[in-house]
Design brief:
The structure is a single chain. The chain contains 12 helices and 4 strands. The chain is an alpha+beta fold and 488 residues long. The chain folds into 3 domains: 129 residues, no CATH class; 149 residues, 2-Layer Sandwich (Bacterial polysaccharide co-polymerase-like), CATH 3.30.1890; 129 residues, Helix Hairpins, CATH 1.10.287. The chain has a 4-stranded antiparallel β-sheet. Helix 1 packs parallel to helix 12. It is rod-shaped. The relative contact order is 0.17. The C terminus is likely disordered. Keywords: Coiled coil, Membrane, Transmembrane, Transmembrane helix. InterPro entries: Bact_polysacc_biosynth/exp (IPR050445). This is Lipopolysaccharide biosynthesis protein.
Length: 488
């Protein structure tokens, strides 16, 4: 079967091998370059005191920003990628660069993922058609990761410090305003405060005792006043009654003397003088009684004023004690708000101190930082080429396809060609087996087949050497990448 189908099989195998070789040679080469970033933590700083985000989270945020469409287009413009492929759209360029760039995180074994010490290093890998382009892309993203990490941390610290400072100032104003409101409320409702209830009870008892004393004094003054008005038996009243009797006796004696004596008699003058002296004494007693009544009235007015003041104070105390529950509830709410503001102020102050410490540590380069441990270098050999394996697979596939096709053609034309085939098919061995004698035409066809196979083999070898680029003066049709060709 192989001898009969050899020209066809050789044609298929040579054609398949040449096609495989052409596809391998003409396919673009892919170079891969990687850069290594180490996560360095200063030994002088406790990682738990770091106020920034964990390194794993920061890398995720940086990767999201780096792979954004706007940043990808910026990389393409700066590195002049895809300059030889103007037919590609922006979306196709973005997809190609994203596909051929990887940012991998290397974690510390045995460290929880949420820990700040979980990330050990970052590997940035880039693929391109040329070694220089692959290295340039990897180094560009490496620099972006290092620079953006520091910029992002500084930006977060600046924004956090500004926010915390404004919040601290706002809380300070709110606390001052709350203190003034509590002071004003306490001053307006001093008697209704819970702390004043005990003193108010004591004061109310004292007011009752003082009022009872005032009532007794008022009643005593009123009795004295009634005694003066009604003509009682006080010493002044007795003196006034005796004086009146003496005046009446003096008037009788003067009248008798005038009837018997001359008008200018000395006895009459003496009696007149005595009568005038007694009348003057009557007027003094009346003045004393009047003044005593006025003094009693003044004392009564003073005592009544004191009692009215006490009544007003008692009314104010009762009113304050009546609204004490509402005042206590309101004051408690204001104190709770003050405590909440104070707690918030303490927390903001603590966070602000952490941010300021973090900024100081970053200024002194004492915080967790990204260090470029290995920069990307142009690779010497393409990655994932496997050209020998692909060529061997193409040859094996071509040979297999040729054998399969030959076998199928044999099955479509089942001819008995030997006595052994006849015996296997019929079970009877032929008596005579005459060999086939070739005619001149058969001989010519055989020679043409040999010539065809020789030309086919020679042409196949020549084309293969040309594809490989071994023949001087004949350049290979395979693509020769340049540094500005892009990613392909």
């Amino acid at each position: 079967m192989i001898r009969r189908r050899l020209p066809l099989m050789l044609t298929i195998m040579v054609t398949g091998i040449l096609i495989s070789l052409y596809l391998i040679i003409s396919s673009p080469r892919v170079y891969e370059s990687s850069a290594l970033i180490q996560i360095d933590t200063s030994a002088a700083v406790d990682p738990s005191s770091d106020a920034s985000l964990p390194a794993v989270r920061r890398v995720q945020l940086i990767e999201q920003r780096l792979m954004a469409s706007s940043n990808i287009l910026k990389v393409i413009d700066e590195l002049e990628l895809f300059r030889d492929a103007p037919e590609l759209s922006e979306q196709e360029k973005i997809t190609a660069l994203r596909t051929n760039t990887r940012i991998e995180s290397i974690t510390n074994p045995g460290v929880p993922s949420e820990s700040r010490m979980s990330l050990s290093a970052i590997v940035i890998t880039s693929r391109a058609e040329t070694p220089d382009t692959a290295a340039a892309i990897a180094n560009y993203f490496t620099n972006s990761v290092v620079n953006r990490d520091r910029e992002n941390r500084l930006s977060r610290i600046t924004e956090g410090k500004e926010y915390l400072t404004n919040e601290e100032r706002r809380l300070t104003d709110a606390l001052s305003r709350q203190d003034r409101e509590i002071a004003a409320f306490s001053s307006q409702n001093e008697d209704a405060l819970p702390t004043a209830q005990e003193s108010l009870s004591t004061e109310l008892t004292q007011l009752n005792d003082a009022e009872n004393t005032l009532d007794r004094e008022i009643m005593a003054l009123q009795r004295d006043q009634l005694t003066l008005i009604a003509g009682g038996t006080t010493a002044a009243e007795r003196s006034a009654s005796t004086l009146v009797q003496q005046i009446r006796n003096a008037e009788v004696e003067l009248a008798q003397a005038r009837r018997t004596l001359a008008p200018d008699h000395p006895e009459i003058k003496r009696l007149e003088n005595n009568l005038r002296r007694l009348n003057a004494g009557d007027e003094a007693v009346s003045e004393i009684v009047r003044r005593q009544l006025e003094l009693n009235e003044a004392q009564l007015a003073n005592l009544n004023s004191q009692k009215a003041t006490m009544d007003q104070r008692r009314t104010a105390i009762e009113r304050a004690r009546a609204k004490s529950p509402q005042v206590a509830e309101r004051l408690e709410a204001m104190i709770r708000e003050q405590s909440r503001l104070q707690d918030r102020y303490n927390e903001i102050s603590r966070q602000l101190a952490q941010v300021e410490t973090q900024q100081l540590l970053m200024d002194n380069d004492q915080t967790e930082r990204f260090i470029v441990l290995e920069r990307a270098m142009p690779p010497e050999f393409p990655a994932f080429s496997n050209r020998k394996k692909r060529a061997a697979m193409g040859a094996i596939g071509s040979i297999g396809f040729a054998l399969a096709l030959a076998f199928v053609l044999e099955l479509k034309n089942p001819i008995l060609r030997t006595s052994e085939q006849f015996a296997r098919l019929t079970g009877t061995r032929p008596v005579i087996s005459v060999p086939y004698k070739k005619s001149r035409r058969d001989i010519l066809k055989y020679r043409l087949r040999v010539v065809y196979m020789g030309v086919l083999m020679f042409g196949g070898v020549f084309i293969a050497l040309w594809l490989i680029g071994v023949i001087p003066g004949l350049p290979s049709p395979g693509t020769v990448p340049t540094t500005t060709q892009g990613l392909g």
